[in-house]
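Board notes (copied after class):
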Amino acid sequence: MQERLALHPVSAPARGRLRWTTGGHPLPWLLTVAGVFTAAQLILVVPGSGLGWDETVYVSQVGGNAPPAYFSAPRARGISYLVAPVASLTASTTAIRVYLALLSGGGLFACLWIWRRLVPVAVLGCAGAVFSCLWITLFYGPQAMPNLWCALGALAAVGWFLRAVARPGERRAVIGAGSAVAVVVLMRPSDGLWLALPLAAAALLVPGWSRPAVFAAVTIGLLVGAVPWVVEAYAHYGGLGARLHRASEIQGGLGWHMAVDDQVRALDGRSLCRPCDVPWKHPVAAAWWFALPVLTVAGVAAAFRADRGSRAPWSSGSWAGSRTNRGSAALLATFTAASLAVPYLFLIDYAAPRFLLPAYALLSLPVAECLVFLAVFLVTGVRPSLRPVGAGVLALALTGHLAVQYGVLRHMLEVNHSLRAHYSAIAAGLHRLGVRPPCMVSGQDAVPIAYYAGCTSRQPGGHDASITPGGIEAASHHMPVAVVVAGGNAPPRYARTWRATALPHVRGRETYRVHLPPNLVGSQPEKEASR
């Protein structure tokens, strides 16, 4: 029994008997996983979707539909660089979405391909499917947001690291580990730091893995990836210390905050939960989240069991002289995932499901070990009469999980489509009132509204403070300026004498009105603007 559960070839006679457990050549399996992931994005997510708040900031830096929005201290420009080839040529949201969907599908394939010599193909394909079927992964796959790319970078970094310590002579693995860390830092510097810490520690402290070259590569990758962020800190934010301080302020003050329950509530179908004092309406949406630690621990145990059941040092494609094994790979992936999750579970006081994408990408590997072990056990380890029952239970659980993921994804897409209609209607209303490029928008939701209207966005206060009230008044004398106010809120003091006009309303969204300076040419009556 122990040999049958090894999930990899143990001898020449056994190799044919166990081939179905390894999955054969990895190329068709991994192409299938990446292809289905890409197709799901193109069919389910891309059509009709619009750019969200953060996306408009990142895209506007390199083109798109509006001048660059204010770039606050915590942000990094990695995702702007990623979308630049398309956003610099067209303002089409669909073009950006298709480009990112294709790129994320290719990125998933490339990252899984790095692991092909570390785990069996069956486990690797299952890991890709486990990660890509999460609503969070599908929803953010074609979005101009950095979190999925941090997840893929983390997956690549750990894979290259394991290959580098397993075969000291594989120079490309050392370079790959450092490069992957640099990409993550470029996308989100904090994620890059929490990724580099466990890898650097493993390269120094784990017996048999001590590799100064790998430690140096990870460290250099961390520093190189941070260069643009540090240079920009001195160029625009008053220095590195000042930018770090401001970034901490914008994120609510980094420190001890128990945000585990916030992350659970956010899984109901919220892109951001801040403050996260909302009721937990749909516990079933987080069932998989509570099962994740159990599946992870069981998967690590299954990986170590597979190692003990084999004479080969590697699960598939045995490498002579290997310094690690399948269990160690699962364990490192788990520890690195835990490191990446720490700041979002314990150091900030709000939640967004996308923050944990890097952790989910790495945990998909031990979870896949567990699922493949269960599948093999149901076929080889139980009485024939019980196999249909066990297979049915497993299939029912997986089907239920997929149904929940699709349900939350559909809700998130409905919210996205509603916001796109909301911002588009307001932008059209502003255009009818004479607010056309070059123009400026301030006030409620100024950043996305300005992007959709083709204007620049400027705020005199808050996280995006980049102008004074006097500066807005001065700008109103040489360009159209609009101050957007939600509901019955009062306008800012400098705009209280300006003309108030209702803006188009989309069902399910809050009503907005705009305050326009009296000298704005092209203003239309309130009745026309509110049609």
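Comment from the instructor: Confidence is low (pLDDT under 50) at residues 1-22, 311-323, 523-531. DSSP finds 20 helices and five strands in the chain.
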